[in-house]
Amino acid sequence: MFTGIVEEIGTIQSANRGANSLTLQIQCTKVLEDVNKGDSIAVNGVCLTVKDFTTSYFTADVMPETVKATTIHSLQVGSRVNLERAMAANGRFGGHFVSGHVDGTGEIVTVQQRENAIYMEINIAPELLQYFIQKGSVTVDGTSLTVFDVTDNGFVISLIPVTQADSIIGQKRVGDIVNVECDMLAKYIERLLSKKEDKQQSAVTMSLLAQNGFLN
Length: 216
Description:
The structure is a single chain. The protein has helices at about 65-70, 160-165, 185-200, 205-210, and strands at about 10-15, 20-25, 40-45, 45-55, 55-60, 80-85, 105-115, 115-125, 135-140, 145-150, 155-160, 175-180. By secondary structure, it is an alpha+beta fold. It has 2 domains: about 10-85, Beta Barrel (Elongation Factor Tu (Ef-tu), domain 3); about 105-195, Beta Barrel (Elongation Factor Tu (Ef-tu), domain 3), CATH 2.40.30. The strands form 2 sheets. Strands 1-2-5-4-3-6 form a 6-stranded antiparallel β-barrel. Strands 7-8-11-10-9-12 form a 6-stranded antiparallel beta barrel. The longest helix is centred in the last third of the chain and has 18 residues, at about 185-200. The protein is globular and about 70 Å long. The protein starts with 7 loop residues before the first strand and ends in a 5-residue tail after the last helix. This is Riboflavin synthase.
């Protein structure tokens, strides 16, 4: 579990590619302060497991499904990435509940500077739109953000100066593809409502059908 509050910007030192998989070596310092083998670290919002580490980097394997479903496949040597350790039980919770399981990718279609803020419009797959409301939460490349507006094709975010400086999202441009994780609470609510609807529909029983002449 993560919060979407980026702790550090790391740099890709190596990206060893298999046919459909990837092993990353990421240079960093802060997230290594108390790291152990097997720990979870979010890399651009993707939960990865620490394979091994030193005082200056860690490595992580990326399975084929993650390579296919996220922007991880586009990382190159020198790419900068948002990093966050899994949330500590005794720490402050400054963002929102983030699982590190990306729901899809989005394309940045507009970037506008408005005084000290950067407004970004991001288009996403139609099936994800149901999880967005104005002033709701979204995770973009591992950064917890507030939904400023919802459009026909996606959503708008507004980046304050701190976010611009402390994460890679402020450096993104039109045409860039980003990882998007929808609000976990919205997904749970949608699941519960669909289950309730299915249960109501299942009230049609064999006995009811027989009573109304549908069965002999």
